[in-house]
Amino acid sequence: MQTQMKQTRLWPRRLSTGLCWFIAVEFFFFAPFKFSPVGVLGYPSYFEKFVNWGYPAWFSVVIGACELVAAVLLTLPRRRFLGAVMLVAILTGAVTTHIVDHNTLADSIAAPIELVLAGIAALTHWPADCREPLAFRPLEASSDSATPRVPPSVTFLPRLPSKE
Questions:
Q1: Would residue 147 count as lying in a domain?
Q2: Which of 70, 74, 71, 67 is nearest to 124 (CA)?
Q3: By C-alpha distance, which of 124, 119, 134, 118 is closest to 78?
Q4: Rounded distance, CA 47 to CA 8, Å?
Q5: Coil, helix or strand for 152?
Q6: 71 inside domain
Q7: Cβ atoms 57, 87 nearer than 8 A
Q8: CA–CA dist 79, 21 (Å, integer)
Q9: Residue 118 is part of which domain span?
Q10: Is residue 28 in some structural domain?
Q11: Digits of tens for pLDDT over the chain (164 positions)?
Q12: Could you tell me if residue 31 is inside a domain?
């Protein structure tokens, strides 16, 4: 019975980890195109695209670097939430840019799909403690994985005696 419960809890974690790795691999593959000053596969370069959208050409390099950092964060188990949130912010700007610029469907279909996937990744890796993704201490090993881990920085207020 207990083995079955552990297996049912394991699959959602594996699915969310797989989703993060899928998104990370996509951005590892496509983000370097934003550094290239020449077009790829007959498409104009991202430098030209960013200028046509009203942004400076160097902003393409900044966005590409942020996408690569977010992809690296998605591969690290304790930093997946930060990577997903970075991608949600970047992709919200991308979707907005495509809507304002009235791009064709072929040019603007990937950004909303990636935004939804990054949003799902952020929600599935939402930390219990808001300071946990920023903590640089190692995880404490617990003998029982069913008991929740309370960080040492969290303090509890003592109960006040009741008047009876």
A1: no
A2: 74
A3: 134
A4: 47
A5: coil
A6: yes
A7: no
A8: 13
A9: 2-134
A10: yes
A11: 555 555 567 777 788 888 889 999 998 888 888 888 887 777 778 888 889 888 998 999 999 999 999 999 999 988 889 999 999 999 999 899 888 887 777 677 888 899 999 999 988 888 776 666 666 666 555 444 455 555 555 555 555 666 65
A12: yes
